[in-house]
Amino acid sequence: MNLKVSSMLGNNSLKISAFVSEEEYAQNLKVLTDILKRSTGNVRKKICDIYGFKLQLDGDDYLISHDGQRIGAGQVVVDGTRVHFEVYPKNTGIKLDELFGVYGDGLSKKYGKIHHFGRTSIEDKPDEFSFTFLLGLLHEIANFGTHFFNIYSTRKRIASKGKPIGRVVPDSFVMNQLKGKYDLFECETLDNSTLRLFATVFYHTAASVLKELQSLSIDEALSGANAQMLGQRSMSRLKPYVVDGFSRQMLNKISKPPYPFGVKELFFKCYKYWESKGSISAVHSKNEMAFSGFSVRLSDLFEDYVGIVFKKAYEYKYEYIAKRRFHYFKDESQERRLEPDHMFVNVKSKELVVVEVKYSNAVAIREHVSQLISYLDYKYEGLGTHKPRGILVYPGSTFTCTRLDSFKHNICIVTLSSFLNDSCLSIEREPLLF
Question: Is 51 in a helix, a strand, or coil?
């Protein structure tokens, strides 16, 4: 697939997409190729590897191709000039906003990486601080029930003048009356000050994470990620409970048990963020040659999404087998092993279902079918008597299911949309898949 580039040179920004006109492509191809040619060899190779670019000589000029399986954004500094670019995937019918919306339904893998490297040093940030960690954290904060902060879990005593506020402390009331302090009351009130400290941490975490994601151009490059909306929602809901004085001391103060019910898991994700904030901040290098950005392989994301769909659709009939590697030589080398994407088994009916996922527009090509057949022919330990059945799954705008009748194995080709509930229902209603 040829890469088409839409550029906004006034903003030093390049949008890399397959959905722009030939005129825009011709106008801007030279800009992108020039950036890569002027980059040092290791930086050029790394950028091409990260985003699936391929630069090849064609006569006196270069052609760029793109595998269309990556999405992300980055900024590269070449000879002091900073250029920002955004990478979009090929059109497979999948809606990214729907796919990213499934995070709350079980997607836990770190799909994206944050990258930073310079002229001599190439280094990826640790996977645990991927951009999906940031996006997932913001999503959790936005959906945390703020009614929780209205729970008054402790009591405190306050001095009230003029009229009592809360329950009057009897002993203190008698003493004040005897001393002639008729308008002074010591009262006991319900207190949520500790909970408000957690709300303050969540609020400032959301604000900081949003800034990180904006610097990585998440909303521009990931249609439907809605980082801006999530950040604004988080902060507007938490603001009434925020207290002054957010600091490292506040974090340390509330990091010790006991914890109020319901906040521990989210708080420690926020704590992890602040502990490592320096290492995940987007880089704004002034060096003559540097790059920073994020990327995600949609093939990994789609593979896990398909697993969630089939688990939901099969939950009453098939048991899911955790992903494993199966070696066919005793040396157990990486090159000599099978690694099916998803496997399901019905012990009672002795059925084995192997689901192989391909993020590709090339449906049922020879390599894909041959790979699935090798999985179906393999003798899995403890499942040797089970009847195998194979399913090849591709992304699409609608659900389809077709059986391949020319093979001895029962093989179906399925396309799945990014609508989780519709996909589950379609599988449940398709007799070829049971």
Answer: helix
Residues 19, 4 contacting (CB under 8 angstroms): yes
Tally of helices (H runs) and strands (E runs) in the chain: 14, 20
* Shared domain check, 227 and 325: no
Classify each residue of 39-53 as buried b or exposed e, where b means 16 or more C-beta atoms within 10 Å of its C-beta: beeebbebbbebbbb
Copy the structure tokens of residue 151.
């729970």
Q: What is the pLDDT of residues 305-340, one digit of tens each?
A: 899 999 999 988 999 988 777 877 766 665 667 889
Q: Is 293 helix (H, G, I), strand (E, B) or coil?
A: strand
Do residues 200 and 250 both lie within one domain?
Answer: yes
> How far are the Cα atoms of 317, 350, 378, 434 from residue 387, in angstroms, in the given order?
15, 6, 12, 12
Q: Extract the tokens encoding 98.
A: 């729907």
Residue 54 CA to residue 67 CA, distance in Å, equals 8
- Judgement on whether residues 222 and 358 belong to the same structural domain of the protein: no
Same domain assignment for residues 105 and 243: no
pLDDT single digits (tens) 230-275: 889 999 989 988 888 888 888 888 888 888 878 888 898 888 888 7
Q: Tell me phi and psi for residue 202, to 5 degrees.
A: -60, -40
CB 246 within 8 A of CB 167: no
The range of the structural domain enclosing residue 176 comes to 154-191
Q: Alpha-carbon distance 271 to 248, whole Å?
A: 10
Helical packing angle, 193-215 and 131-142, nearest 10°: 140
Tokens representing 204 are 């400032």
Number of domains comprising the chain: 4
Task: Using the structure block, give the residue that is written with the tokens 């002054």.
Answer: 244
Report pLDDT digits (tens) over 146-159. 777 766 555 667 68
253 shares a domain with 143: yes
Question: What is the model's pTM?
Answer: 0.64
CA distance linking residue 202 with residue 5, whole number of Å: 39
